[in-house]
Each structure stands twice: as structure tokens, then as C-alpha cells.
Amino acid sequence: xxxxxxxxxxxxxxxxxxxxxxxxxxxSGRYGETDATALTVxxxxxxxxxxxxxTLIHELIHAAAATxxxxxxxxxGLEEDIAASLAPYIAQxxxxxxxxxxx
Length: 103
Ligand SMILES: [Zn+2]
Prior knowledge:
Elements: E1 3-8, E2 11-16, H1 19-27, E3 32-35, E4 40-43, H2 49-68, H3 76-99
Parallel strand pairs: 2-4
Antiparallel strand pairs: 1-2, 3-4
Helix pairs in contact: 2-3
């Protein structure tokens, strides 16, 4: 399976980690991409686990920014800086908490 639906706010989003999309991402030098119009997060299915988690969280920050309307109040560069800056810390904390047995 390469398509994973999730709900964010009132919207039904999907993570698409299909082979076809992964090859397109790789061709453009990206690990992931968020399309707020299609409500879809694209992820390269061949990323190693740590990079997968970082990229997923990064793209979910973009999805949350779009869903919350924050995207319209930020420049594209600032939103990218926020996602790039925060995602590794959130991924690190989630990994530690999960390993520590938090739910
Ligand atoms: Zn980004």
C-alpha cells in the first residue's frame, strides 16, 4: 500500500508514498512535497527510517500550516524555514518519547 489517508482539521489528507511519486521526487532532488490543493503529502518511499520521519514531520508542518490558514500569513521562505527548523526537533523528541514507552 502506498496511499495513507489522515484527517487534519476538517480536511481529509493523504500521504502518497507510491513508487511513481517517489521517482518524481528524486528526479527533482526532494525527499517530500506537500500539495495543499490536492491535500496530499508526497514522500519518497525509499528514505531510511530517520530521514523518513524527519521528512514526514516536515511535510506535516506544511500541511498543518495550510490547514490552519497560517500559510497565507507567511512568506513561502518563512514557512519553509519554520518547517525545516522545527521538524528535526519534533522528530527527535517523538523518537525519544516513543522509545521511552510514552503511549
Ligand atoms: Zn518544506
